[in-house]
Amino acid sequence: MIGILGGAGLAAAGVMLQGILKNPLASPYTLGIGSGAGFGAAIAITTGIGAIGGSFAIAGNAFLFALIPAVVIYLLVHYKDATPETMILAGIAMVYVFEAGVTLIQYFARPEDVEQIVFWTVGDLGRATGTQTVLVLIVLVVCLPLLYKMSWSLNAMLAGDQTAASLGVDVERKRIQIMGLASIITTVVISFTGSIAFVGLVAPHIGRIAVGTDHRYLLPGSCILGAVLVLGSDIVARTVLAPIIIPVGVITSLLGGPLFLYLVLKRRKSYW
Questions:
Q1: How many CA atoms lie within 13 A of 66 on its CB side?
Q2: Localized where (predicted)?
């Protein structure tokens, strides 16, 4: 269940972020959200210090630090009128900062803590509990319908901000709303599963080939593809070297990287 819900959520976040940024390389991790969560989790694992206590200490820290890139990008948009290109560059800069922080923590951490950090940063479905799965389900039930309601506005924005504004779309407000909802979905999912790479990047591209660029169809289609991608990767991770279980993020990266390269080379026309 956490694989299905997590894959659907990451794919939904990816397709909407690619839409508002008009960039086929945009994803929750391109904007630094995944790296921020990894840094927060590493702090909790090595120091035992978390935003909340108990069994949610690591997830709480991951959620808190994953919000930092989203807040930074929001401030850039709100106060500096940042362009989509600037937002992508800011996200990549934060990726490097957080990954450097994780590397520094691993350098000084105990071997058992380093092992736990590595498992968390590559993604692992086996540690999610029933309560965490229900929380992810609640977030998706609330956020996905809101994103779907903005599908038409996003279609208009793809034609250009001026065109969308002439059709009555408040471009800046919609962009912030979509980014906020996508960030919430991403932070909640990866707070419990770790950083599962490539799902939010690859699933939308497969969806565009299958159903086109209309977000009224692309959003639900990408959710289904993301769920299938994570679930299939988890099955492979549990069986290919059984009884050894490989972290699901390793499989999604091994499958997603070559698949994404194939899609890029095969697709000759514009993404939008």
A1: 30
A2: Cell membrane
